[in-house]
Design a protein that fits this description.
Elements lengths: L1 H15 L7 H7 L4 H12 L3 H19 L4 H7 L5 H12 L33 E6 L2 E11 L4 H15 L2 H8 L7 E7 L4 E9 L9 E5 L2 E9 L4 H18 L2 E2 L5 E4 L10 E9 L1
Antiparallel strand pairs: 1-6, 2-4, 2-5, 3-4, 3-8, 6-9, 7-9, 8-9
């Protein structure tokens, strides 16, 4: 329950400072988490980024104020964090489908996004199959790309990277290089600084990296290894959501803060019985 309380504390902090210029670092601190891991957890649980949640809530309040007051659009633009009335109007129209001036008309429909409340989900109908494994540190070789965690750049860039490695033969090369315990090609998220992250497509490999590939050392950890069954990308996305909404809140474990792994086999990723895994480093 402590984990849920931490996430809720961060959401409450966002709501209490909704009209201020708050950073993801300040928000994550309330959850006792790194900016990277908080953003990732929040997005998995809610299907939206932290930035998008703040935008939706601010524009919801702005619409209510427009409908119930005579405040000027320019004043509301600055109040809700926009540099110009034009940028405010553009964002407002994107969310509500109408202009701020039209929002004053009683016949217009507005979108309302309510304040989030995180709750433990005790569904239990779909079991999570997992094992616990302890491993010393090991090496992986592959390719790395740096992405910004702002404006959902990472969510857009990572699928493009996978398309690239599947088309240029890198994925097949990594499958052939694999000589470690983890069988398959891994997707690895590594937290960076200044709202940046590194994403690796790599395989476990004991030896010097071939030309064109780089080496990443994965630290020793206790791992919880979850089975994932079903076609990509839905099966993987659904598994992450179930892990964070059902398993973590009641497991007694916390995320260790080091990189976690998605492991993909060499079978047809769109098959209904495709097998993959999620490896999460934990601490009790």
């Amino acid at each position: 329950m402590t984990w849920i309380k931490s996430i809720q504390k961060a959401i409450d902090y966002m709501e209490e400072h909704l009209l201020e210029d708050i950073s993801i670092e300040q928000i994550a601190k309330e959850a006792n988490a790194s900016a990277f891991h908080f953003q990732r957890t929040f997005t998995i649980l809610t299907d939206i980024s932290v930035g998008e949640y703040l935008r939706r809530r601010r524009l919801t309040l702005a619409a209510q104020e427009l409908a119930n007051s005579r405040s000027k659009v320019i004043d509301l633009a600055y109040k809700y964090g926009y540099d110009t009335p034009e940028s405010f109007t553009k964002a407002f129209r994107r969310q509500h489908g109408i202009s701020p001036s039209d929002a004053r008309k009683s016949t217009c429909k507005l979108k309302f996004y309510s304040r989030l409340t995180i709750q433990v989900s005790l569904k239990g109908a779909d079991p999570l199959n997992y094992k616990v494994a302890e491993r010393k540190g090991f090496d992986a070789v592959g390719i790395k790309r740096e992405f910004s965690c702002e404006n959902e750049e990472n969510l857009i860039g990572i699928p493009k990277l996978w398309n690239e490695v599947n088309q240029d033969g890198t994925n097949e090369q990594l499958m052939n290089l694999n000589n470690g315990e983890i069988k398959g090609v891994m997707g690895i998220c590594v937290a960076g600084s200044n709202k940046m992250m590194d994403y690796w497509v790599a395989a476990e490999y004991d030896g010097e990296p071939p030309v064109g590939l780089s080496k990443l050392t994965i630290p020793a950890a206790k791992w919880v290894v979850f089975e994932v069954h079903g076609p990509m990308p839905d099966a993987m996305q659904n598994a992450w959501k179930q892990i964070f909404s059902e398993w973590f809140p009641t497991s007694g474990y916390e995320h260790a803060g080091t990189p976690d792994l998605e492991v993909y086999s060499n079978d047809d990723p769109f098959s209904s019985d495709y097998y993959s895994e999620i490896w999460i480093p934990v601490k009790a």
